[in-house]
């Protein structure tokens, strides 16, 4: 059966724009795969390669560029770096599905050019799979798209190739269909409250911020994966299509206009009590603790015929991907990778999430404290090859953290008082402190005096 892909017509116009210039262009294909249909959402040209010492966020803001005029000169690592940065901007359920190329050569007939395409796709696939919490690869399908438009004939050809299987992977044709109208999407909004305290245990080999965050992500991923999702306050059948839920909620008197613009669904995640308890309880002497507090905003866009199960997976992917993106960006911005600060308590605010329009839905970007929405315009232009205005950036999905309560750090306020202060639900922050795990100490005292407490209670009961 031939694989069929649907995309908006502006993707065709985007390709024709570069093909008419008769220049070589390579970029990423971004889209969503569901059991009902495969949709391509956007095509993003890979920026011109820039000479840098290492792959980092700054590599895409360098002023010096090195023009690449043909496919054979493309750096696989540069394309993979672009794919990593773009994946951070994608909501859950949306992935890098392949690459597109505009060139004069027939990349499918020329062995050298096709070998290069294979190498690029394999490198991208491997790079996206290195961080499991970014969910860079669609786990059920390793066949990546190759879309080519000839700059001379303007003929469009699309095929797939399986990645990660060596040089003998089969090449399959793809039926690519352009839609004259914008695809309707079902939006699901979720606000996941994050209020956890994690112990910091420094071993002889030491521990860095990245190592500690990796452990936190593993714990958060386990918790979120085990959670139960409610849509609009109800537990839904996983096999039911999202559009069926909309029809059930819609009054019979609804107008056609209201039917064309489905409302957002509110999603709530609940963690089963038994899954929130540790498997074993052991006494640990901690060198410090990290307190994460706030709410992670999640906005996922699904094809209306997608199932509830697919929507659940996308929402959970989105939350973990957002956490992983912020932790990576925060660690990259740190000057000192030492986990424990010299101060007793140290307040940190990871970058907050903002939404940016892409076609008929939204991708996201992250702004550090003090950065204006204009910073997001640079990322959108460089990474997604889109021109948007500052007014189009939605900045109120997460508010900056209120640091006024932590001004007491300049005075002699105890760390216990600060850690006990509740935070606003729309903020997302973490606090590190050099202290012993008071909770664990309290539990150990209770266990130590357990017999005395039981004896005391039994005497009180007998006297009464």
TrEMBL record:
A GO CC term attached to the entry: membrane
UniProt keyword list: Membrane, Transmembrane, Transmembrane helix
Quote the InterPro entries the UniProt record gives: ODR-4-like
Recorded superkingdom: Eukaryota
Subcellular location, record wording: Membrane
- Segments passing through the bilayer: 428-450
- For this entry, list what GO says about its biological process: intracellular protein localization
Note the Pfam families from the entry.
ODR4-like (PF14778)
Q: Which family does it belong to?
A: Belongs to the ODR-4 family.
PANTHER family with a match to the protein in the record: PROTEIN ODR-4 HOMOLOG
What name is this protein filed under?
A: (African queen) hypothetical protein
Give the organism, scientific name: Danaus chrysippus
